[in-house]
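Notes to self, Ubiquitin-like domain-containing protein:
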Amino acid sequence: MTTIMSPAEELKFATHFLHQLASQPIQYQLNFEPPLANCHATLPPASRPFPLREPDDVATSPAANEVEINIKPLKGGQAFTIRAARLEPIGDIKSRIATEAGIPIAAQRLVYNGKGLVDTKTLLDYEIVSGATIHLLKKPVAASQEKHEEAPTDTAHSRSKATHTSSTSPTDVFKIKGRNPAFWKGLRELTGQHFGPEHAGVVFDEFVKSYHGLCGPLTVPERDALKKAESASV
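result:
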C-alpha cells in the first residue's frame, strides 16, 4: 500500500528531518586536522588595541613614534627631559632616570595626572604625549637594596657569580634566558611553523613585548642585551 502525502505534509516531514540532521553532533577521527584556511590565530591580549599597519599617508619614521617627556622631581633636584618610544615600558624609563638623576629604581615613584605609573605598562597606555610632565618622587629605600642596584651589572662574571651565590628569582631567569639568541631563533621558527609568514611576525612581536614585561624593570645594559639577542635571531 502506497502512502501519498500532501505537499504540506511533505514540507513538514522534510523540515523535521533536516532539523534532526542539523542537531546531530559532528564527530571527527582522532587524527583529524582542520584545513589551514579555517584556522584563525588568536593573538595574546595586549594592554590596549593598536593598528597592525600604519596608513600609507602617515609618517612611519622612528621619530613619529617617539615623544619628549619632562621629568620633574617634586623635592629638589633639577628637572630634565628624556626622549623615549611610545611603546617603551615605564620600567625602562626608570632605568634611564636612574642614570640621569642618580636615583635608584627602587626609590622612584613616577606620577602622571595624579596616577602612579606601573612598570610593566607603556607610555602609550597612559596616553603620555610629547611635552608632558611626569613627576618624580623619591621613596625611602633600604641601604642594602640601594647598594645592590648601584653595583656594576655589565660584566658576565658578576652576573654568573650572582646567579650561583644567591637564589634566582623568576625575573632574573627571564633576563638570563632572553640574552641567548638561540632562544629567540627557536621562537621565530616555532611561530613560523604554527602561524605562517602572514601572522608569525605579529605573534613574535607581541611575545617580545609580553616577555619584557615579565622581566620587570630593566637597566640600560640589560635592555640593550635583550634587543641585541632578539636582532641576532633574525
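- The radius of gyration is 27 Å.
- Residues 15 and 21 are 10 Å apart (CA to CA).
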